[in-house]
Amino acid sequence: LKCHRDDLFDHLRQAISLAAGAEAVPVNYGQLLRDIQHWDTDDAWVQRNWARAFWGGQAAGSVSEQYASEQK
User: Would the CA dihedral through 45, 10, 13, 11 be positive or negative?
Assistant: First the structure.
């Protein structure tokens, strides 16, 4: 979650390989692309959404919903 955008693709390649492993966790590639496009925002809302989704906190909204609400 704290990695620099330049290092993100190495981390994602590993994470996607793990997701495709024994338990076969599906990856929403469209959402992933939208998240990557907004990776470097000052408020790090993509990273916060990922953390909430992973650790089971508040349900993460879609990037477009989050982006729209923050632009208001």
Answer: negative
The per-residue pLDDT for 65 is 60
As a whole number of angstroms, the distance between CA 70 and CA 50 comes to 17
CA distance between the termini of the chain: 25
Tokens 């994602």 -> residue: 12
* R_g of the chain computed on alpha carbons: 13
| pLDDT tens string 50-72 | 999 889 865 555 555 655 555 55
18: its two tokens: 């793990």
